[in-house]
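Support reply, case 0932

Customer input (verbatim):
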Amino acid sequence: MSNCVSVVLGQDGWSVTYTKNSICALKGSTVDLSCSYTYPRGHTVTTTTWNKWKSLTWTQIPDKYEDRIEYRGNKENDCTLRITDLREEDSTLYYFSFTTGSWTSGSSVTLSVTDLKVTGGMWTRWEYKKTLTCSTTCTLIDNPTYIWYKNRHIVKEDTSSLYSDYFSDADSYSCAVKDHENFHSPAMCQKCWSVTYNHQRICALKGSTVNISCSYTYPRYHEIKKAFWFTKWSGMDPEDLSSVPGYQGHIEYLGDKKSDGTKT
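Our regenerated output:
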């Protein structure tokens, strides 16, 4: 695949060129929708606009939107848009337009947001040799290197998303993409308990709201009766923060009793 997809729009020197016209990126990561534009000499750019396809209509994106979407370009030739902390709702079409009088681009770039998941089926006591796949809902850009973890320790790095070995049903397996190791897949395990945090470290402003996102797994045929968050303790049983003085009214459990453990 070439590194630059030329999208020539308009005529007489008017054009917008997207570096990639289809992008697949990991949930929680940062992506640049890179593009450049040209126009005839003697013209001056007065406005630049990115638009997002939402609810069957195009919606203009402000230069600074929700502290996650930022216009990184200029009014000369760069029209890059950066989106941080990618979410599923960011998956849609985007197009850039600029004005020197009255000219609008007529093509768009597609962004697809995916997370990682280990797939490969269940194994039985008689079948320990299996092939696992680090699966995504779309094809990640730039031929990523996949990292495989066994019990949280790296066991393989490869451009292939497959991992074949003799597996123990008491071990856990997860995967990540190189340079995006903070965005692990949930662990796959037959007979173990595990919790996977989307971010190992979080920096947030005093007085703001933050989501501490995680997922968890547990052996089949078990039923979760209670799920709660607690802080480190010393010689004491863990205590649900929602009932601890000082935390009441400030935290909310947004997860479920299946696999999502998000707290805000």
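We compared this against your earlier run and they match. Two observations from our side: Residues 15-113 form a domain with the Immunoglobulin-like fold (CATH 2.60.40.10). The chain has a mean pLDDT of 81. Please reopen the case if you see a mismatch on your end.
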